[in-house]
Amino acid sequence: MLAKHWLLFGCAALSTGYCSSAWAAKAGPDDERSDSEITAARDIVVIGGIGYRNRVDTPEPILQYDTEYFQRFEPLTAGDALKRVPSVTFLSDVIESDAPRLRGLPPGYTQILINGERVPGASADRSFFLDRIPAELISRVEIIRSSSARRTADAVAGSLNIVLRDGYELDGGYVRAGGLRYDDGEVEPSLGFVWGGAVGAGRLLLGGNLQGRHNPKVKQSFRYGDSPENDPDYATEEFDNREDQTDTRDGKDYSFNGTYEIDGDTTNFKLNGFYVRTDRTETERSFEYDDPTAITGPVPAGNLLSDNANFTDINQENYTIDGKLSHEWAAGKTSLRLAYARFEEDRNESEYEIGFDVDEGDEPEFEGEFTRSSIRDKELSIRLEHEIPLTEQVKFVFGGYYQDKTRRTDIREAEQEGEATFVWDQFSRNPTELSGPFGDFEAPDGGYNRIKEKRRDVFALIEGESGGLVWEAGVRYESTKVRIRDFTVDDDIANQRSKYDKFLPSASFKLSLTERDRIIGSVARTVRRPDFNYLTPALIEEEVGDSDLLGNPQLMPESAWGADIGYEHRMGSGILGINFFYRDISDLIELTNTGVEGSEGEGTFVFQPQNVGEGKVWGVELDLSTDLAVVGLPNTGLFGNVSWLDSEITDFAGKRRFNDQAKYVYNFGAIQDIPSYGVAFGATYRKQGPAYGRVISEEVRTTYGADLEVFVEKRVGKTFTIRAVGSNLLNGRKREVFNKFDNLEDQLDRDFDEYELESEKAGPVFQIMARYAF
């Protein structure tokens, strides 16, 4: 909290002291700078035409999409909006879009930015769940395909920048209200407001949103035993059990953002704030049967093996505040940015199970477990940048970056004490009704730790333009110190330190061949930092099948050399683009066998993550957004994109793709506007290809069904719009095929412990949303 108070004090001091004379000297109205750029609220509520991808003229390869591109399909979150842009895949549950996978790579390879700044999240791989950001607060989303010396280089796959609205983008306000109806009949509210206008010497924007969440899913799993001798890949002969599960996720998201900006002749000051709170519950109920066709339900039949109830209560808070001051003077332009971000999560999970698979005459077995977990992740960062014009078309930029990050993890587990007393008529009741007092809560190995990172970066670049060429070339030097304190291990290894430095060059260009055609290219070196759960020095028993996992505090980041080359053609108001990308990744973090026998004895080992692997990633990305004015249909818009993704990595069992990388992803759609009637309608169709993942003791192949969405819009005058939207109209289904093994030796010999077929399904969602501008 002290850091946050200093940040707020610093922003206030900058805004009142250093800049006062520059602002006082400003001539003309406060909003003179951007009269042509400020959007009236009614133009956001009543969209006047078809939305297209923007044409960005900076050297970097950036795809930019304003809200007009996706708003008519009423995405609830930033994750929902990104389903319509190239190369973004998800491995989420059906009808959810949480951790984006740019180029299909695991989420930790994608850098998530809000207003250009990194944000902390709950995941151990440092990823951030985009379904926590309401789409209503977004001004635009940017896919930054390559890195620049200006930004931190944690972007092997690329960066996704979510730019929130500010006061110089909106004049006036509007309210949004509506509801969503889910397949089980439940209705959730969706409410929001946004307002922007002149206040004092600058402009202010305020926005808020309340979003109800509900996701009722049905799952079914069939599990089989040992592998048949004539089929080394899949075990399909010996049926073991079937599991029927209902999984319902309910919650409310509360969000708020605000900006205040003063733009003078030579000085600009901007203060941003963003806050999201999530209250969420996850309720699962599972029944296992020893017959593939037994009647579903909690009945005391001979086929019922177990009755399991799992309930999780999740509370999350995520907020950022940052201030930026820039000033032009005789020596150039100087910018200072201070930012503070914090993420908090409290999770309470209970699981109760009645086991009926007992000897005749014995009482059913009952187990109860409770887990409390807490994550606190905070970041304080300072960035100083100075820009010097060398000529009218060339400038030199240099600066520094400091970040102080602390992540605390506290997990405590307890088991129910004593034995539950059963009465036969209770078999049809929820196992939670048999719960009793729990024993002492204790932290499991590696479950209670603190990780601190201090970064000191410097960077320099030259950028310029000449005729039809714009270009940038620079280098960034990142130095990081890591301190780890694990409270679950002996004192002699509890405190660990490491340090690493990275030299990261980058270059980008755009070459205009004609007014409509240009080539875009870039090359950059990037990094991916180790997962937090791999850094603690704890030994976790039976974490890798029956084998153990030993953390490695001395892990270094993975690094990658990457290149992108693309072509863009302007088509009327739209764009056609194609891009080829390649990444060569070294120092991959892989689990290696230390040779030490594991806690389960012969045949098991202790595995440790180490920087031992190499991998390659490549693909082709094609995108299109245009109207059909060329054939006399200016009010008909077409949009779509398709990405073919591939990679190669060598692990303990041979060659494979990067884990869970989809082979392809595409979506396409159309919008028809009828201005004379104030009506528009459209549809979009999306499909993500199969993905395969392999780790020690488990392999999984994941496939998704297609997703179809439609909307109908009616505009009333210049201030009111109402839309009806149907999503997941094809009853989205996620299918997973698991190969499970006791240990690495069994995996290589294809000696299965279990083979599982799992299917998850959710029904359509219908929503009605209305907006009114004022």
From TrEMBL:
Alphabetical UniProt keywords: Cell outer membrane, Membrane, Receptor, Signal, TonB box
Positions with biased composition (Basic and acidic residues): 242-253
Subcellular location: Cell outer membrane
Biased composition (Acidic residues): 228-241
Disordered: region residues: 216-256
Domain TonB-dependent receptor plug: residue ranges: 56-158
Keyword Signal: yes
Signal peptide: 1-24
UniProt cross-references to InterPro entries, sorted A to Z: Beta-barrel_TonB, Beta-barrel_TonB_sf, Plug_dom, Plug_dom_sf
UniProt cross-references to Gene3D superfamilies, sorted A to Z: TonB-dependent receptor, beta-barrel domain, TonB-dependent receptor, plug domain
Domain of life: Bacteria
TonB-dependent receptor-like beta-barrel domain span: 432-709
Pfam family, one: Plug
The family this protein is said to belong to: Belongs to the TonB-dependent receptor family.
PANTHER family in the record: PLUG DOMAIN-CONTAINING PROTEIN (PTHR40980), TONB-DEPENDENT RECEPTOR-LIKE BETA-BARREL DOMAIN-CONTAINING PROTEIN (PTHR40980:SF4)
Protein name, as recorded: TonB-dependent receptor
